[in-house]
């Protein structure tokens, strides 16, 4: 995996800028986003030729009134009860998309767990640990960043828990 140069950092997204500032090894993958594709995550996996089990989507949920980030494989879905339990909450529901965009600073389909406007509680599905590297959104549609799950967990202060289904 390549580290980005200072020149690339200045042209990056908040996610790639955060990775560079932390000195984390990562690789950026870009592809032409098709607005007609029904799934941002599946589109990314197909475009990059990466197994959907290694491409993770970033979802915003409301857990007992607090926005929480869930990072799960695009090959499955989020178990809201498991997410609530992972952060000691009682009830979780998908967050209002406008609130998620306002809080993270990213648009739907491009929300990254890294470099968010306001750092949110983050839970990473424990299946990530089975892979040397995983891909997550780099902060815009058509742009993914590949890094180790351990680095992602460290940079986001994520809890690892079984929150994915399927």
Report on this model:
The structure is a single chain. This protein has 166 residues and is α+β, with helices and mostly antiparallel strands. The chain has 6 helices and 10 strands, in the order H-H-E-H-E-E-E-H-E-H-E-E-E-H-E-E. The chain has helices at 6-10, 14-22, 40-48, 80-86, 97-104, 149-156, and strands spanning 27-30, 56-63, 66-73, 77-78, 92-94, 121-125, 134-140, 143-147, 159-161, 164-165. The chain has a 5-stranded mixed beta sheet. The relative contact order is 0.23. Residues 1-10 have low confidence and may be disordered.
List the topology elements.
Layout: H1 6-10, H2 14-22, E1 27-30, H3 40-48, E2 56-63, E3 66-73, E4 77-78, H4 80-86, E5 92-94, H5 97-104, E6 121-125, E7 134-140, E8 143-147, H6 149-156, E9 159-161, E10 164-165
Parallel strand pairs: 3-6, 6-9
Antiparallel strand pairs: 1-8, 2-3, 2-5, 4-10, 7-8
- Placed side by side, the strands forming the largest sheet appear as 5-2-3-6-9
Counting DSSP E segments of at least 2 residues, the number of strands comes to 10
Share in helix: 25-40%
Termini Cα gap: 29 Å
- What percentage of amino acids are in beta strands? 25-35%
Structural class: alpha+beta
Q: How is the biggest beta sheet arranged?
A: 5 strands, mixed
Q: What's the tally of helices?
A: 6
What's the Cα radius of gyration?
Answer: 15 Å
Summarize the helix and strand pattern as letters.
HHEHEEEHEHEEEHEE
Global morphology = globular
**Average pLDDT over all residues:** 91
The parts where pLDDT drops under 50 for at least 5 residues are 1-10
């Amino acid at each position: 995996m390549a580290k980005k140069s200072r020149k690339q950092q200045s042209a990056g997204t908040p996610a790639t800028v955060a990775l560079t500032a932390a000195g984390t090894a990562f690789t950026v993958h870009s592809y032409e986003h098709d607005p007609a594709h029904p799934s941002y995550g599946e589109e990314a996996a197909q475009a990059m030729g990466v197994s959907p089990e290694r491409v993770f989507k970033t979802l915003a949920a409301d857990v007992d009134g607090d926005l929480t980030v869930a990072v799960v494989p695009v090959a499955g879905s989020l178990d809201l009860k498991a997410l609530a339990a992972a952060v000691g909450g009682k009830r979780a529901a998908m967050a209002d998309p406008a609130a998620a965009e306002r809080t993270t600073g990213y648009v739907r389909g491009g929300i990254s767990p890294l470099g968010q406007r306001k750092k949110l509680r983050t839970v990473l599905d424990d299946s990530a640990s089975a892979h040397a590297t995983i891909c997550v959104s780099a902060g815009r549609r058509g742009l993914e960043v590949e890094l180790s799950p351990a680095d992602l967990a460290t940079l986001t202060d994520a809890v690892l828990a079984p929150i994915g289904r399927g």
